[in-house]
Design brief:
D-amino Acid Aminotransferase, Chain A, domain 1; Rossmann fold; alpha+beta; globular; five-stranded parallel sheet; single chain; about 400 residues; about 30% strand; nine-stranded antiparallel sheet; Dna Ligase, domain 1
Length: about 400
């Protein structure tokens, strides 16, 4: 017999961590929210908060030892993974596990695992540690190419390069947007694809795996702009994506929800990336499913059954981006936005913002994906951001 509640520590307290924390609080758990800045979104609903640089191994170890959480839930990539591996060996439960966290925080490790060890189809790629290697890799792959830091998040540091003359500025952008200490980039062929999807994949305590309906999404600069569920996919392509997601998540092991991204090109399914945690494109599940991705993640972590995942209706999301730099953003237009039927609005509560930073998301459902997308766009455009007086 399992005993609840548990004490859960979030390593990363952005908008996705906040939703995990809300799901945890609804079941009476204690939430400790950690991030590198104060008043992060998840800290606003947590029982305890800690501000620290989580890439600092000794500081991270001290915080975890101080609170002795039952479960540690990494929510970002920039972590001292060696500390998590050490603490896991001492009996601290890491989600999904320390190995999976280590593999997925660096694009080279997860890409090498997928393509070289597991034989999954990926875009052609190479690595570069300086501008000379970058030029050489680009000449081998041929323009256009996509250049990404080995470790980053939300598309930071990513550049689509169509001309060799732009390689140096792409390198500088990658270094500026990178997290951690790595000075390496991945150089990837640019794929002309028909659809980009996220397949939310849930590994349960008993070893079984569940899938949500595929989520289609659009990106700009490597960061998602809108998503919709269900994405239209043939049975053949869906089964292929599920098989590939099962292969890589079984190798990584552990429990919890994984966001596995694929490109769909004709009759091909091509592995892109993987996050061992709820995915930003999966915010749409807050309105599209009976159990959203955060509730599914929590249930898998706590060993609580998931009887059935039900898609409620065609749904979509549209991000709300900061239009400028704000020390303390305020919002207008909520009344107009929420006058639409079957809509929801999430304002993340970020204490400040730079231009282009994601500050919220509009969610909508309707009879068709097209109508849901149109409605989500309308809700998002109703919100205006201004500086607090």
């Amino acid at each position: 017999m399992k005993i609840y509640p548990k004490t859960l520590m979030l390593l990363g307290s952005g908008e996705l961590g906040k939703e995990v924390g809300i799901a945890a609080k609804r079941l009476g758990n204690t939430v400790i929210a950690c991030d590198r800045y104060s008043n992060a979104p998840a800290m606003q609903i947590a029982d305890i908060s800690e501000v620290l640089e989580m890439t600092d191994p000794e500081r991270l170890k001290a915080i975890i030892k101080k609170h002795q959480p039952d479960i540690v839930i990494p929510e970002i990539e920039a972590l001292a993974v060696s500390t998590l591996q050490e603490l896991e060996a001492e009996g601290i439960k890491i989600i999904p596990n320390a190995r999976a966290t280590a593999f997925t925080m660096n694009r080279d490790k997860i890409r090498d695992l997928a393509s070289k060890e597991l034989g999954l189809k990926t875009a052609k790629f190479s690595y570069a540690s300086n501008t000379e290697e970058l030029i050489e890799a680009t000449e081998s792959l041929g323009c256009p190419v996509v250049i990404k830091p080995i470790m980053s998040s939300s598309g930071k540091g990513q550049t689509l390069v169509r001309k060799k003359e732009d390689l140096i500025s792409a390198w500088e952008n990658a270094m500026e947007g990178a997290r951690g200490t790595s000075k390496q980039v991945i150089v990837e062929e640019f794929l002309e694809f028909d659809l980009e999807i996220t397949l939310l994949t849930i590994r349960q305590e008993d070893g079984s795996t569940l899938f949500c309906n595929p989520i289609g999404h659009e990106q700009s600069g490597g960061d998602y702009q809108c998503s919709w569920q269900p994405a239209k996919l043939s049975d053949h392509l869906l089964k292929e994506a599920q098989s590939m997601a099962l292969t890589i998540t079984e190798n990584l092991g552990g429990v919890g929800l994984f966001g596995v991204e694929f490109f769909i090109r004709g009759e091909e399914v091509i592995f892109s990336e993987l996050s061992p945690r709820p995915h930003d494109t999966g915010l749409v599940t807050i309105i599209s499913q009976n159990l959203n991705e955060f509730e599914l993640h929590l249930r898998a972590i706590l060993g609580i059954p998931i009887p059935e995942i039900i898609g409620i209706s065609a749904s979509a999301s549209r991000v709300i981006l900061s239009t400028d730099d704000f020390d303390s953003p305020n919002y207008t237009g909520l009344e107009k936005a929420l006058s639409e039927k079957n809509t929801r609005l999430l304002i993340f509560g970020k204490p400040n913002a730079k231009k282009g930073r994601r500050l919220g998301v509009a969610l909508a459902s309707d009879l068709t994906i097209e109508k849901a997308l149109e409605k989500a766009d309308k809700v998002a455009s109703s919100i205006q951001i201004l500086e607090a007086k």
